[in-house]
Amino acid sequence: MRFNLVLMGPPGCGKGTQAIRLARRFSIPHISTGDILRQAVRDGSPLGREVGALLATGALVSDTLITSLVQDRLTKPDVSHGFILDGFPRTLAQAQRLGGMLPDDAPLVVALIAVPEEEIVRRLSSRRLCESCRITQSVSDASDPDSESCPYCGGRLVRREDDEASTVRRRLATYAAEAEPVLSYYRQRQGFVGIDGLQPPERVTTALFAEIARQTT
Ligand code: AMP
Fold this sequence. Notes:
Elements: E1 4-8, H1 15-26, E2 30-32, H2 33-43, H3 46-57, H4 63-73, E3 84-86, H5 92-99, E4 108-114, H6 117-125, E5 127-130, E6 136-138, E7 157-158, H7 165-187, E8 192-196, H8 201-216
Parallel strand pairs: 1-3, 1-4, 2-3, 4-8
Antiparallel strand pairs: 5-6, 5-7
Helix pairs in contact: 1-8, 2-3, 4-5, 6-7
């Protein structure tokens, strides 16, 4: 069963967690454009220097830049058995460009993990990134942000710069404005599936597996 997957949903809907599980299950790469850009900023590469200031504001980088970054990534040999895109496409122009990059012999599944806005704001305010192993995780509402450590490696947990409240609101507004044309584009196409993201993460995973199986058999 070979397929390519686009995971969609607002920031904080659980895309990253689900993408990691799906990538393991199907042994295909998880390509997160946000992770690639944040890594470039940390590395201080030319790309990182170009997008660093923009990333901190929560605004989108240009279609041209992100599309060529994805196009380049999809030439790597590890995508030959399929791939999972997380964070791309974010605009109609990106969705149209992606159409031209896909192989003919593997279906595209587009899965929307739907979560209401109030729940997103609650989730993002409790999201932390481990400075050492870089795994994103939740802390309890009552936790002290300065005393939490990573349950995986003991590293220090920090709030991602773009999870600050004002940036979250901007990201949600940007997401709502940008996502609708992309969703309308894919809703009319075969391979689009909607998943209830309010379910526990394990159930979201099960629903994704079932939908992928249904779309690819
Ligand atoms: P994410 O982790 O997916 O929320 O992405 C973090 C940031 O990276 C976004 O706020 C944008 O600045 C940038 N970014 C990631 N993917 C895209 C994309 N497909 N188009 C434009 N900007 C993007």
